[in-house]
Amino acid sequence: MHRFDPSRLSEWLSHHQFTRVEAFGLKFGAIALLIVVVSVVVSIKMLIQHLWRRRQDERARRASINESRETPNE
To answer: Which of 6, 23, 24, 74 has the fewest CB atoms within 10 Å, measured from its CB?
Structure first.
């Protein structure tokens, strides 16, 4: 089984001359990865906000139902 050795990777990266295509690919890949990470974080944030609003709305609805039950109709 091959073990990952970060020092060997950094040594290889420091000696390896990237071609223009490789450099473009690395930049493109890094930008694409950044876009994916940002969109996932934003989606999770929006989902949490949506669930939080639903929870607050449900609490408000229950409170108004309980309030209407407690006040007698005149």
So the answer is: 74
Rounded to whole angstroms, the Cα distance separating 64 from 55 reads 14
For Cα atoms 59, 41, 23, give the angle at the middle one, nearest 5 degrees: 175
Query: Whole-number mean pLDDT of the chain?
Result: 87
Longest dimension (CA), the chain: 87
DSSP one-letter code for 71:
S
User: ∠ CA(62), CA(66), CA(67), 5° rounding?
Assistant: 115
Could you give the CA distance from residue 43 to residue 35 in angstroms, rounded to a whole number?
Answer: 12
Q: How far apart, in whole angstroms, are the C-alpha atoms of residue 10 and residue 12? A: 5
* C-alpha–C-alpha distance, residues 16 and 22, integer Å: 11
- Give the pTM: 0.57
